[in-house]
Amino acid sequence: MKIAFIAHDRKKDEMVNFVTAYEDVFQGHEMYSTGTTGQRIMEATSLRIHRFMSGPLGGDQQIGALVAQDELDLIIFLRDPLMAQPHEPDISALLRLCDVYGIPVATNIATAEILVKAIDRGDFAWRDLVHKYKPGIEE
């Protein structure tokens, strides 16, 4: 699976703790992240992560491009709902693309845990259906 990690500043510690707790589940998957989040995860774990730019500098859009190319299976995006984000339009665009392409997004730790446990059980076979019925393709 191809998994992306994004965390707002006040959620980075929570993301690092989460990924550390489930490091064994993430082993063997292809992982992506925005800049600082990915760096912090790699410093705390043995995971290798392809890092993009920081979210406000275009990292959210780079991950969005992977979504639009059907190159991601899951995004864990720990958002800070109590802090205004200067790049909110980029965040909204990324979430809209996930809805268009049927990419599951966890925006809090509870949903992230449910999705990671699904990965561990191999419950992502439904993604084959999403690939079969891509948006914009008519039969």
Structure description:
- Its EC number is 4.2.3.3.
- GO terms for molecular function: methylglyoxal synthase activity.
- InterPro entries: Methylgl_synth, Methylglyoxal_synth_AS, MGS-like_dom, MGS-like_dom_sf.
- This protein has 139 residues and is α/β, with parallel strands linked by helices.
- It has one domain (2-132): Methylglyoxal synthase-like domain (Rossmann fold, 3-Layer(aba) Sandwich), CATH 3.40.50.
- It has helices spanning 12-21, 23-26, 35-44, 59-68, 88-101, 109-121, 127-132, and strands at 2-7, 30-33, 50-51, 74-78, 105-106.
- It has a 5-stranded parallel beta sheet, sandwiched between helices.
- α3 links the parallel β2 (30-33) and β3.
- The longest helix has 14 residues, at 88-101.
- The protein starts with a strand and ends in a 7-residue tail after the last helix.
Write out key terms for the chains shown.
139 residues, alpha/beta, Rossmann fold, 7 helices, 48% helix, globular, MGS-like_dom_sf, Methylglyoxal_synth_AS, lyase
* CATH architecture descriptor text: 3-Layer(aba) Sandwich
Tally of individual helices: 7
What is the CATH class? Alpha Beta
Please give the alpha-carbon distance between the first and last residues: 27 Å
According to CATH, the homologous superfamily is Methylglyoxal synthase-like domain
Tally of DSSP β-strands:
5
Number of domains: 1
